[in-house]
Design goal:
alpha+beta, 13 helices, 15 strands, elongated
């Protein structure tokens, strides 16, 4: 704005307008009085004040944004470090101070981030990268910067060393910083302490290892198709892993359980609930084995099962023992009834009849006889007990005296002695 005096009471205000389409870029406003000049001056001052207020407001807003960003970065569980192209640290966040134990005054402009690394691991990984990419990247932190600039290193796990000497695992992401001309001016790294994650992974690995060593494990999809089995599953079923994957558990069905048994099991796990029970399976060689089984559904974000984990333990020996004990109990009870019936019998023929009848029932036989030899080695049947099975054998042409023939042979053998 240029002010020129043309007359004691006339002022010409020259306003430069760079946006004017006219040949000249100047507007000439003739102010006929001092009052007009004051009005213009007042308006100009007001505009300047408004502009200054807007600049101040914008500056405060930017300051608040920067403060918020700084507060977020300082409170984050990340170490944010930037270096120049020589590797010298230029910025060191509050998170980096907490994670690594150094103050920014100790490292900014003083050292490279190489002091945070395990030297042996550092050189090993750089050498490994050189072999992988078929080029000599060199050693030292400069080699790492070179890798980032070439896009060979973006994110990787490393061991970092705290100022107190303690070691901890970190995941580091690195990116190139550029200027307005897109020329590299430095490296920005963001590292996160993954100690908790590593501990959790190790714990999960230990649990999984122990589970595979002690239990029979399988995983199926929601349809029941097998997509994982461990070695113990293959061992007890006698099927190879290739024979089992893609199949369902019907390949192991022993026929022992009624259909409703499996219907109820599927109803339970389909609702996302854990099922527990004992299942009798058939191995590849047609032998049977019993498993104490728990089936745990894995649920998706909608709470619906998307796969099932089955954990089993071999209880065949226990089930066989239980079955034998049950048979012994039945036989013991039957023997008790035989004894009781004999004691209540009135005569010898009745005692013998009860004996053969109960013996046939206990041993599940078709025919039981009591045979008495005479002094001349002949003999006679004292009493016999036959069941429906023996009658059917006779109906199908089996001679009734099959046992008689055996006894006859026995009699002859005794005479020859």
């Amino acid at each position: 704005m240029t002010e020129q005096t043309l007359h004691p009471v006339t002022t010409l205000l020259i306003v430069e307008d760079s946006k004017s389409d006219r040949a000249t870029n100047s507007h000439y406003l003739q102010l006929d009085s001092e009052n007009d000049y004051r009005i213009i001056e007042s308006e100009t001052l007001n505009q300047q004040a408004e502009l200054e207020a807007k600049v101040t407001e914008r500056t405060e807003a930017l300051w608040q944004v920067n403060s918020l960003q700084r507060a977020i970065l300082d409170s984050a569980d990340y170490a944010i470090i930037s270096t120049d192209l020589n590797g010298i640290i230029e910025t060191f966040s509050a998170g980096a101070e907490r994670m690594l134990g150094y103050s920014k005054e100790e490292v900014v402009g003083q050292v490279t981030p190489e002091i945070f690394y395990d030297p042996q691991e550092f050189n090993y990984k750089i050498t490994k990268a050189s072999i992988k990419h078929g080029k000599d990247i060199g050693l030292g932190f400069g080699a790492k910067i070179s890798m980032v600039l070439q896009g060979l290193l973006i994110s990787e796990e490393w061991t970092n060393i705290h100022k107190d000497g303690s070691r901890f695992p970190v995941e580091i992401s690195m990116t190139v910083l550029t200027d307005d001309s897109d020329r590299p001016i430095g490296i920005l790294s963001v590292r996160k302490d993954i100690s908790d994650r590593k501990r959790a992974e190790k714990q999960a690995l230990d649990i999984t290892s122990a589970l595979h060593q002690t239990a029979i494990v399988a995983i199926t999809d929601r349809e029941g198709t097998i997509n994982f089995v461990n070695d113990k599953f293959c061992e007890i079923s006698q099927y190879s892993r290739d024979e089992l994957l893609g199949q369902n558990h019907r390949i192991l069905n022993s026929g022992h359980h009624p259909r409703q048994f499996f219907v109820d099991m599927w109803k339970t796990i389909s609702k996302g609930e854990t099922w527990h029970g004992e299942i009798k399976n058939r191995a590849k060689d047609d032998s049977f084995y019993w498993l104490d089984t728990s089936i745990v559904p894995f649920l998706d974000e909608l709470g619906k099962p998307y796969q099932y984990l089955s954990i089993r333990n071999d209880i065949t020996l226990r089930k066989d023992t239980e079955e034998k004990l049950c048979q012994l109990a039945i036989q013991k009870q039957a023997l008790f009834h035989i004894t009781k019936s004999i004691l209540l019998a009135l005569d010898i023929p009745q005692i013998l009849e009860i004996t053969v009848n109960k013996t046939r029932e206990i041993l599940n036989l078709d025919r039981v006889v009591i045979y008495r030899f005479k002094p001349d080695w002949s003999g006679e049947f004292i009493v016999e007990s036959v069941g429906d099975g023996w009658v059917k054998l006779i109906e199908h042409g089996v001679h009734r005296t099959l046992a008689d023939h055996y006894l006859g042979l026995t009699e002859k053998a005794i005479r020859w002695q």
